[in-house]
Amino acid sequence: MSASHPRILLLLARKPVNELPAILPSMYRNESYLAGQHWATNLVSILSSTVPSHHGIWSEEGKLGLHVNPLPACLKRFGYRSLFVGPDDAKVIAIQCGFEDVRPISGNDAAQDIIKVLARSNNAPSFVACVLDEFPPSMMDAITRLAQDPDDGESITIIVAQLVPRVSESCSPVSVPFAVASPGIKRNHGSRAHFWALLDIAPSLLGSLALKIPYSMVGRDQHLFWRGKGRRAIKFPRERALFEYADGSKTMCSAKYMLTVHLGKEGGELVEHVAGIAISHNLWDDASSAKVKEHAMLEMLWAQMDKESVPMPRIAGA
Question: 101-104 and 81-86 as β-strands: parallel, antiparallel, unpaired?
Fold first, then answer.
């Protein structure tokens, strides 16, 4: 008999992994653009669908701003229990994001046991987020058995991603693999036409559960990609993403081009890319690419505006 309540497992790695573990043959797999270089920035982006460096959303004291509705707080309104398991330096983020239970990770086996026990609970809908340095095989084997169980697997959604850029020259420096296993996914529907950012995970998860998405989440609800639908089925599909470096430089990625500008410096890089990997020389000073550069600069502006979580107008009467 299937469990009576939905369960959600969010598994996140703080070390680069070029390939995600296969939990189910029918997992949705794709690439997702990071928000920044640091794992904490990307953790906040996944949990709140906001960018912490933007307009004080994440303050120096480590507190969320007024206009943020993180995923655990959203799910709590619908009766979900939330548990966070992770390292001590992620504890502040977890507390500020509204997790009811925050536990330190005392070893990979301990984390595996906590996730497994809570995921099997049918007392209430549950949401578990686990941050590890890497995915140990023993833990992933247990998660795979859980997902493949004919009773438990019918009510569980598992999302796997990483929080830091990969280091391989053959991989994109600004995007990472992510995967979703859910009862509604019958086969692998991943496609390069599906454009993702980590910001999209929270609203897409809420959308897949038919729950209200708060306006403060700047990501796009693209959960229909998980169900095998095309771009036309998505009301507002993502068309570009913005990645921020620690030194203030920014890279805008569209379907065809990557544009990088450096804080306080003239010049930049404009290249064609496939899956985040450059396939052309730098077109920044190429006169024949002036129109392309102009449009890419405009797309970077749009990408920056896409991150705005405060509704307009922000001045009364404007």
Answer: parallel
